[in-house]
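Question: I have long wanted to understand how a fold can be written as tokens. Here is the record:
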Amino acid sequence: MWPYVKLFKYYLVTFLEILHVIIQAVNHYIFSTTEKNIRNEIVLITGSGRGLGQQVAVLFARRGAIVVLCDSDEIGNSETLKLISELNTEQRVYSYTCDIGNRTEVRQLVERIQSEVGNITMLVNNATVLTSNSILDMSEDEFARCLNANLFASYWLIRQILPSMMRRNHGHIVTMLGATAVFGLGNFSAVCTAKSGLVGLMESVDHELTLGGYDGIYTTAAVSHYLTTHLFQLSKTCFSPVVPPLTLDYAAKKIMHAILINRKFVCVPRLYYLIPFVKGILPARAFMILLNTLVNPKVPMYTEQESIVNGRNSRSGSQHIPRKRSYMSACQ
């Protein structure tokens, strides 16, 4: 009889601990709006040349952080650098050009930052390469490049930066995800593979930090709806009237708030929290019907036709010519 009593007590204690954590989480979610001070934190932001990365970089700079910009687009990075420099407060910002899909460049980048700026205390994995092709039409090189930039780059950066965070038990790792992290979408096999892998990577890293007792290192995974960047300006789905594209400013502020209150997982908008629940309770075929109704993968997504100006892509202000999206960078 005694072994059963001991087992019952073990599970009861586990249940009470889980209940206590749930109550704490609900209390934190409802009542805690205190944002942490990130002044003098050294923040590395990948894909900072434009879009969400640029917007987040400006928000970090406004709060007094030491911002380290990283993008393969040197001109875009210069624009972000200029935006931050124009702020009224004293800013400390550094700019680096790097192809994060190349492991050697990533290693050299981190070494340069550590010697020229200092140990990175906050990492924002934002840079993304986006491909839109069926799995049969996509080449192996294209698939591999997408995984290198979207998945392995985050792994390489975490491997390089995490040891210094662990020595001080201080840091924060942020990964930007999209809708493809919560469900698989046709013609986006490479992106879905990478983003789903990032979810597992972040959860595993968080578990390892918990097991090691590193309570001063936080992780945040951010899922956002598609944004009103030039990549998606003309894209239309049946879901658009319910959840229209997000503005960069709105998405960046919501994600920034989640980072500053150390939230592990954030969806913008909140409706995205329901996707794993709906996916879990519906039969697989029923969820597929729902997905095809709201976001039909057979309908090509379009964006504005761009002209090449001064060696980089620039919007054409006089004419909007839709073209099929075949390959692009979500950093743009």
User: Anything to note?
Assistant: The longest strand covers residues 171-178. The chain has nine helices and 13 strands.
